[in-house]
Write a structure and sequence with these properties.
This protein is of the alpha/beta class and 309 residues long. It has 10 helices and 15 strands.
């Protein structure tokens, strides 16, 4: 994360058009033919073309399939705000309603709320459309994306100079946003939140830390400048499951020059984490290990970023 600048009134960055599924499917079929012909160089070039156009290719023993890794660009421009309060929902409408009520009850800054619906549930999409208002916007992803790409859809759409990303299981019990904005008024700070992490000697394991300076901020509640997030192209879309995505994002922001700090005594409650509870334990462990390896592949040699070293 060179030193972070205080954020100008930024607009969403221009993005390449995402290739539609039928066009992407044609490219995938051409890639399959090339692989059968053992023309791996051209097949790899098509895979890269698909990735640049917002699609990942997953090769399995039974064949190849497409997975969207990028949302279409925002369709409209919203009025600029001081802060965007963002959450990603994968179902559990009652959690999102509780989060929204707490946000509108307690936030005193000039804000907007964005709910990214990554549930694939038409009923939730209909509810979200009805809830849209001047300071509340909903984005429905169809088809649903991985966790990292869903967060990026919110980052791209944000009209705030600062983004505070929340898990929908978090409930504000007071004005939690003002202290986060105050922390980011220090230009050396690039991430702020109530739940910090430090590595336990190596990068293979992290534990909770009260800081104040930490290696990463957990994604339950994390504030960062919109311009900084866009400069590193947001979360890594390869993190389709949420575990470790927040740590990897923290490291990329800090690698540009900046600190992650814990804001203590923030008035927030953490309720049940639905994605964790809803994922079968064996699958949860498998996906968590995969994300840990992905993180280590990129950062295992960067112990200079560990604040405890």
């Amino acid at each position: 994360m060179t030193r972070s600048k205080s954020c100008p009134r930024s607009r969403p960055r221009s993005r390449k058009r995402r290739t539609d599924r039928s066009e992407a499917q044609s490219l995938l079929e051409r890639r399959i033919e090339l692989r059968r012909e053992r023309n791996f160089a051209e097949a790899d070039a098509i895979r890269k073309q698909l990735q640049n156009a917002g699609w990942d290719v997953v090769d399995t023993a039974t064949g190849s399939e497409l997975q969207a890794i990028k949302a279409p660009p925002p369709s409209a421009t919203a009025p600029t705000r001081a802060v965007t309060l963002l959450t990603i929902m994968h179902g559990w409408q009652a959690d999102a309603e509780r989060w929204l009520l707490s946000v509108f009850t307690h936030t005193k800054a000039d804000f907007e709320a964005i709910v990214v619906d990554n549930s694939g549930d038409a009923r939730i999409a209909g509810w979200l459309q009805k809830r849209s208002a001047e300071r509340m916007r909903g984005i429905t992803l169809d088809p649903p994306l991985g966790f990292g790409a869903a967060v990026n859809a919110g980052i791209d759409a944000a009209a705030g100079d600062v983004i505070v990303l929340f898990d929908p299981g978090v409930e504000l019990k007071g004005d939690a946003v003002a202290p986060l904005l105050a922390a980011l008024s220090d230009p050396t700070v690039v991430l702020a939140g109530p739940f910090g992490l430090r590595a336990r000697g190596t990068m293979k394991e992290f534990e909770e830390s009260s800081g104040p300076e930490v290696d990463a901020i957990e994604g339950y509640c994390v504030a960062f400048r919109t311009s900084d997030a866009r400069a590193i192209e947001g979360y890594d879309p390869k993190f389709r499951f949420y575990r470790m995505a927040d740590v990897e994002f923290s490291f990329r922001l800090r690698d540009r020059g900046g600190r992650a700090v814990v804001v203590g005594d923030l008035p927030v409650d953490r309720h049940e984490h639905r994605l964790w509870e809803a994922t079968e334990p064996g699958e949860r462990d498998r996906l968590s290990r995969r994300n840990t390896y992905r993180f280590l592949d990129r950062w295992r040699e960067r112990e200079d970023l560990l604040v405890g070293k």
